[in-house]
Amino acid sequence: MAVNTALIITGPTASGKTQLSEWIQPALCGEIINADMGQFYKPLSIGTAKPNLNLLKYNHHLFDLIDIPQDLSVAKYRQLVYDKVNLICSNGKTPIIVGGSLFYIKSLFFPPALLNFGENPAPEIDLNKLSELELWELLKSIDPVRAKQIHQNDLYRIRRALDIWIQTGQKPSIYKPIYSPIFNAMIIYVCPPTDILNQRIKQRTEQMVHCGWIDEAKALMGTDWQEFVEFKGFIGYSEIFEYLKNNKEASFLPDLINKIQIKTMQYAKRQRTFWRSFANQIDQKLDKKCNFIKILEIFVCDDDALYRIINEFSNMK
Q1: 41-62: per-residue pLDDT in tens?
Q2: Distance of alpha carbon 254 from the chain centroid
Q3: 33 in helix, strand or coil?
Q4: Do 268 and 13 meet the contact criterion of CB atoms below 8 Å apart?
Q5: CB-based contacts of 237: which residues, under 8 Å, 6+ apart?
Q6: Is the pLDDT reported for residue 244 higher than 80?
Q7: Mean per-residue pLDDT for 184-195?
Q8: 66-101 pLDDT per residue, tens
Q9: Contacts of 117 by beta carbon, 8 Å cutoff, 6+ apart
Q10: Which long-range contacts (CB under 8 A, 24 or more apart) does 36-39 make?
Q11: Confidence category of residue 236, pLDDT binned at 50, 70, 90
């Protein structure tokens, strides 16, 4: 049976992934599949840079997927993408997976390991009562190997690792990923030079704030969404919640924008670090003569890059 082939466009936040996908989509008769965690959630639009779905002229999938504050597991995401890729390819179209949530993209190649719930679980610990620093120190004490693989500010993955330890009594680092891609793929990594990326982040943050991000966050305050958004660590929302809670005046707006810009640039740096690790894992698994998975890094989205992507992807199919 023929194996389907998908195009994946990823990269740090504000790198130009959406724009590149919209340039490529007509040439490949593509349909877009979302790979941005924040854009799974219906109430989160401006703060996640979600495209205006009402204006899109092509089929798109896995946007506004969830309208209640609950997590989407990587196992569930992997299955959803697998089904969408099969459907799109059966209709003679090209699946184009777009987003910067590499944790989810990685699951398409390295499925999450099944946990072994042993007879000796770890002591019951209420993680909600621990500060971010205490969570980090706890992980570092029980599993230095896994702690070294996670950034100290990556609260979601720190908690995930601790949850595994609490549930199984085993070190999270023993659950090593197994390479098992669900389709052939060409992975485009978009990463402009750091100075250009940072300037884009600064400009986009200002635009988002002035286009209604504060009102979007205000509508979530006092609801289950506020706690969920803060737990997930969606950048900017917590800062806006704090700004609103303290009844800050307009004169404090530049300070709010600056805080979000700094947090976003730090996040982009972590995304680049994650990418290097992920790309290295893929590279180690590939037979150099194999054409089933390709990685192409581009720094400028111009006509030459567009032509190269379309040409190389077409040769894979």
Answers
A1: 999 999 999 999 999 999 999 9
A2: 27
A3: strand
A4: yes
A5: 47, 217, 220, 229, 230
A6: yes
A7: 95
A8: 999 999 999 999 999 999 999 999 999 999 999 999
A9: 167, 168
A10: 36/98, 36/99, 36/100, 36/101, 37/72, 37/99, 37/101, 37/103, 37/104, 37/232, 38/234, 39/63, 39/64, 39/99
A11: very high
CATH architecture of 127-174: Orthogonal Bundle (1.10)
Phi, psi of 31 (to 5 degrees): -125, 135
Instruction: Answer for the pair 167, 115: CB distance below 8 angstroms, yes or no.
Output: yes
Could you tell me the two tokens for 202?
């600064």
Domain range list for the chain: 5-111+178-202+270-316, 127-174
**Least confident piece of the model among 114-128, 143-157, 243-257:** 114-128
| Secondary structure of residue 50 in the 3-state scheme | coil
CA dihedral 142, 148, 152, 158 (to 10 degrees): -50
Vertex 134: Cα angle to 145 and 271 (nearest 5): 55
* Mean of pLDDT values over 170-187: 87
Q: Which amino acid is at 94?
A: T
Q: How far apart are CA 288 and CA 293, in angstroms?
A: 10
Q: Which residues face 95 on adjacent strands? A: 31
40 phi and psi angles, rounded to 5 deg: -70, -25
Question: Is the domain covering 5-111+178-202+270-316 a CATH 2.30.180.10 domain?
Answer: no
Confidence band for 122, pLDDT divided at 50, 70 and 90: low
Per the rule left: phi > 0, alpha: psi between -120 and 50, beta: everything else, 192 is beta
Instruction: Give the model's pLDDT for residue 119.
Output: 55
| Residue burial 34-70, b: 16+ Cβ < 10 Å; e: rest | bbbbbbbbebbbbbbbbbeeeeeeeebbbbbeeeebe
Tokens of 105: 């993209």
